[in-house]
Amino acid sequence: MEKQQLREKVLLQRQQLSKSDFWRLNDELLTKLQQFNWSRVKVLHLFLPIVERKEVDTFEFINYFKTEQAHMKLAVPRCHYKTRQMDAVLFDPETTVLAKNKHQIPEPLYGELVEPQQIDAVIIPLLTFDLLGHRVGYGGGFYDRFLERCRPDVLKIGVSLFEPIEKIFNTHEQDVLLSHCITPTHTYIFGNLN
What we know:
Blueprint: H1 3-15, H2 19-35, E1 43-46, H3 58-68, E2 73-80, E3 85-91, E4 98-100, E5 106-108, E6 113-114, E7 121-124, E8 128-129, E9 135-136, H4 142-148, E10 155-159, E11 180-182, E12 187-189
Parallel strand pairs: 1-2, 1-7, 7-10, 10-11
Antiparallel strand pairs: 2-3, 3-6, 4-5, 8-9, 11-12
């Protein structure tokens, strides 16, 4: 399937989830996330969810990381739409002030920037992914550009409420492949680990 068709299909699929199914899938995903080996990750970048689009609730992940992975520093994105670039901002759930941008994405109003080269792992939003590690996001390319600025060995971890499709068509050379994707039932590891 082509990327635009997949976007429309998965957005509809997510919107049709009942509240109980949505939270059940989030809870199962969190359980899988907790089983991942985070020991080498000292700085983790993760997205904050667009609640209106029923994105994976990463605030639950943040609670886990702050209580169970206290060695880890967390960073979240702040987007610059004119340049289509993204900054990583150090995040503390107790002190960081968030505001929703024009796309309803919570972002830090201020905070210390983290250099992309310092980041060990990035949890990446997506709509769907395939068995080769390609992903479909919203189409802005923010994460592809951001990941290009990270170290080659950074873990690129997608999280999805749904299982993969077999193959995404119309992928591009500049698309950055996932190294892993975590779903409520599986952790997929792709062959592009550096």
